[in-house]
Write a structure and sequence with these properties.
The complex is a heterodimer.
Chain A lengths: L14 H8 L18 H16 L3 E4 L5 E5 L8 E7 L12 H16 L8 E6 L11 H7 L4 H6 L8 H7 L17 E9 L4 H5 L3 E7 L1 E10 L16 H17 L7 E10 L9 E10 L2 H22 L2 E9 L3 E2 L2 H14 L3 E6 L4 H5 L5 E6 L15 H19 L1
Chain B lengths: L3 H16 L15 H16 L3 E4 L5 E5 L6 E7 L12 H13 L8 E7 L12 H6 L18 H7 L15 E9 L4 H5 L3 E7 L1 E10 L3 E2 L11 H18 L4 E3 L3 E4 L5 E2 L2 E10 L2 H20 L4 E10 L2 E2 L2 H11 L5 E4 L4 H5 L5 E6 L15 H16 L4
Parallel strand pairs in B: 3-4, 3-5, 5-16, 6-15
Antiparallel strand pairs in B: 1-2, 2-4, 6-14, 6-16, 7-12, 7-13, 8-11, 9-12, 10-12
Helix pairs in contact in B: 1-3, 1-11, 2-3, 3-11, 7-8, 9-11
Classes of the chains: A alpha/beta, B alpha+beta.
Chain lengths: 418, 401
């Protein structure tokens, strides 16, 4: 769709209709939520639909070498570094309909409202829909990683989804050429700022009754896979004291993670095992091999690394005591990010202009903004999540709360692009 | 008479020959009523005849070799000749071939009873997911409703029985009320004898078993934004319980408890598990001890859940009682096997547990390397097989109807 002429104005659905319609691109509606993983045919159709929405809003669209979708509203001085906003429209499994989507469709709505108000930015404004914020391939934010040069050619073969499909093959399936991925890299000097609107995915704003969160720092994950190998033996014929049960060992490791994260001195460390696979996975066989994916996060890098180090040491001791082999496979180790003062001030000014109360806060979730921060100044703003629920079908942000976020986003973009 | 080591070597060679009868190239898979099983049964039938036995098949297709003696009733030796997918070569066939070796040795002994060797056509249940089909027919415990069960290709059990020459309408006639006793020789499938450095064990009984599914229902949530004290992590609750299961089972003599399957939902690295389902398999030779352990593990699950706001649902899927071996036959077998054979309860199920419904049973375990079974690495020693043939032969020679 690169270079397709933008026919504006065209009738486009309102923001809230658009959110509802995007949720219909769903691979598992029976589960009650939305499942739309990156580079699936369903994701491809959803992205086409978003591109049409951008075009209907007067933007020129293109897909870059990694499959990120870009919509451009050209400024009065196109040679100036541009302002970028956006988020992602892929989802985790059986997710809600707002995570990421609000930041893409909300950005399109912000551009539409600015145009309607007759605003003409000096800098160009681009809306980006990142390919693969959720970790289908074990690592999240692969679209933004491609932009900042954090994806190496060997990563494309190494990263695999739960069915063993490599990222390279998934790219090919989406009509992209893995060898050309480096072409997706952005020139940092050509980007003035990146600002991402997102649902909070926590309950702090709700608890304080505040409509807007101005993010000052983003917590970062340290993710790795632990593999424990024992012996798959007969569940009836192997006495308890002659077992090398990999699942019992893995369970001890999981409890230790819970204990270490709960007692972390920062008070903000979280540790999670969301995926565990026990092999051979038969009711009458002692598990001989177990894989578990560990996710530890904090905005306090030192506290996070202390939990990781403590867990790895505990895992080594547990494995030694149980005569299990332990393997540690790194997945991702990101650095927590401080947001750009310039961007934070633009968001604060937009809140004050709109008369909306706001709270400065840290993001516990990581976002594409955290990756973009490696190369460009970034900022984020949050809208409330009901009950803090996210990555779940019950995820909810009320339409008027989303509207408030879009109003602030538009104001901040106008300031940054002026 | 063949030299003792000689017939053990023959048994080992025959295990190798049977291992070639497989549904799949390159690995051993021989399920019920397949051409591979027919081929294996034909080989076994030939060896029975070579040992001087008359052969017949029952309506399911179990193969029976018979050496006539005084009186019409028979003492039977046997096991099964079907396998799990990607199996080893000794689980089942060893007991049948040791039985044939005994018959060979005793062909001219003029025993005061008939000696039979039975090759059951299905014990593993790999095709129809109903274990012990063969011995169930012999024990008169075949459920007619099983006939409509289909395999993965949609073939019903009734059609499979017909296709390989059996008669699904006559299975009731397969019941044997004329057996004086049943002896099953089987590999241990566990590591105890290998650890002890002893070739044979006397089996005191087959453990009873409880199978359950334990569902932990918490709340899925974002792994980055949900503070530790605001979580209802189903997998953390399951992990605490799995550690408890192991610790509790270790404290109870003779008990084994296993969590073999664990499924988490939604199953993404950045999402707290909202649901975890664990399987539980508990076995003990004493039903009371097993039931007490199951009750304790159930309480443990509830406690692990309650500590995290996770709901726990306990679904008992199956409970089978322990089957003690016949004390009288077991003493005779112990005398025949020699003083150093330890006594073990069998944690694994065997055809003997079915046959116990119609005849007194005894079982002899043979050491297998590292306890490995249901795997191509399954391995037994020739000298251990010789010891098993000797013990079984003495048992039969001294048997008094």
């Amino acid at each position: 769709m690169s270079g397709r002429a933008a026919a504006y104005p065209r009738r486009v659905p309102g923001l809230h209709d658009a959110i509802a319609r995007l949720a219909e691109f769903n691979d598992d509606p029976a589960a009650g939520g939305v499942t739309r993983e990156v580079f699936t045919p369903t994701y491809g159709r959803a992205l086409d639909w978003v591109a049409e929405l951008m075009e209907g809003t007067g933007m020129e669209t293109r897909i870059d070498a990694f499959g990120n979708l870009w919509g451009r509203w050209e400024g009065a001085e196109p040679g100036l570094p541009r302002v970028v906003t956006g988020s992602h429209v892929d989802t985790t499994l059986n997710a809600g309909r707002y995570d990421g989507v609000v930041g893409v469709l909300g950005a399109i709505e912000a551009v539409r409202s600015l145009r309607e108000a007759g605003h003409g930015p000096r800098r160009s404004i681009e809306v980006v829909s990142f390919a693969g914020e959720e970790p289908r391939f074990g690592t999240g934010c692969i679209g933004s990683r491609a932009l900042v040069g954090q994806l190496e050619p060997e990563d494309l073969e190494r990263l695999r989804d739960r069915d063993g499909v490599s990222l390279a093959d998934a790219l090919r399936g989406a009509g992209l050429e893995p060898g050309r991925v480096p072409e997706a890299r952005i020139d940092p000097d050509a980007v003035h700022a990146f600002l991402e609107l997102h649902i909070e995915q926590a309950a702090v704003l709700e608890a304080y009754g505040e409509p807007i969160g101005v993010v000052t720092a983003i917590a970062a994950p340290h993710d790795f896979r632990l593999r424990l190998r024992g012996a798959a033996t007969h569940a009836g014929a192997t006495p308890m004291d002659l077992r090398r049960d990999a699942l019992a060992g893995a369970s001890e490791v999981m409890l230790e993670l819970e204990r270490l994260a709960r007692s972390s001195p920062s008070g903000t460390t979280v540790g999670t095992v969301g995926v565990i696979r026990a092999h051979p996975g038969a009711i009458n066989v002692v598990p001989g091999e177990v894989e578990l994916d560990v996710d530890v996060r904090d905005s306090d890098l030192g506290a996070r690394e202390a939990v990781v180090d403590g867990l790895l040491e505990a895992a080594r001791q547990i494995a030694a005591r149980r005569r299990l082999e332990l393997e540690v496979e790194p997945i991702v180790r990101d650095t927590p990010v401080d947001c750009s003062e310039t961007v934070v001030e633009a968001v604060v000014a937009a809140c004050e202009e709109a008369g909306l109360p706001y709270r400065r806060m840290t993001s516990g979730a990581y976002h594409d903004a955290m990756i973009m921060a490696a190369k460009v100044p970034v900022g984020m703003l949050f809208v409330p999540s009901a009950g803090g629920v996210s990555h779940h079908p019950d995820e909810y942000t009320a339409p008027e709360q989303i509207d408030a976020g879009v109003l602030v986003l538009a104001g901040a973009l106008a300031r940054l692009a002026a | 008479m063949i030299a003792p080591m000689g017939d053990a070597e023959t048994v080992m060679e025959r295990c190798d020959l049977l291992a070639r009868c497989s549904e799949e190239p390159g690995r051993l898979t021989r399920r019920f009523a397949t051409p591979a099983l027919s081929e294996a049964r034909d080989l076994v039938e030939g060896w029975m005849r070579d040992a001087g036995m008359a052969t017949r098949r029952d309506p399911l297709g179990n193969l029976i070799g018979r050496l006539e003696g005084g009186g019409g009733r028979a003492l039977a030796l046997g096991s099964h000749i079907d396998t799990v997918p990607d199996a080893g070569r000794y689980d089942g066939p060893l007991g049948v071939l040791v039985g044939i070796a005994c018959a060979e040795r005793l062909r001219d002994a003029r025993l005061p009873f008939a000696l039979e060797v039975v090759a059951f056509a299905d014990e593993e249940g790999a095709r129809f997911r109903t274990a012990f089909l063969g011995s169930a027919v012999t024990a008169g415990r075949f459920g007619p409703e099983w006939l409509s069960r289909a395999d993965d290709d949609g073939v019903t059990l009734a059609d499979a029985i017909r296709a390989w020459g059996g008669d699904p309408d006559a299975l009731a006639a397969g019941r044997r009320d004329d057996l004086l006793g049943y002896l099953e020789v089987h590999i241990e499938q566990g590591p105890v004898l290998d650890r002890l450095g002893i070739p044979l064990a006397i089996v005191t009984g087959i453990a009873g078993r409880t199978l359950a599914s334990v569902v932990f229902e918490g709340s899925a949530g974002h792994a980055g934004t949900t503070p530790m004290d605001g979580r209802r992590d189903a997998l953390a609750a399951a992990a605490e319980w799995i550690v408890d299961v192991e610790a509790d089972a270790r404290r109870r003599d003779g008990l084994v408890a296993t969590v073999g399957e664990l499924d988490t939902r939604p199953g993404a690295a950045n999402v707290i598990a909202g649901r975890a389902v664990a399987s539980l398999d508990v076995r003990h030779a004493d039903d009371g001890a097993r039931e007490a352990a199951v009750a304790a593990l159930r309480e443990r699950a509830a406690a692990a859940g309650a500590a995290r706001g996770v709901e726990v649902t306990w679904e008992e899927r199956q409970a089978t009682s322990a089957v003690p071996c016949s004390p009288e036959l077991t003493e005779r077998l112990a005398a025949a096997a020699g003083a150093d054979a330890p006594r073990l309860a069998s944690g694994a199920g065997h055809d003997a547990a079915m046959i116990a419904a119609v005849a007194p049973v005894a079982m002899l375990f043979v050491r297998c390397r590292a306890g490995v079974s249901h795997h191509p690495d399954e391995s037994v020693r020739t000298e251990d097989v010789a010891a098993a043939i000797d013990a079984a032969t003495r048992f039969v020679e001294r048997f008094e109807p």
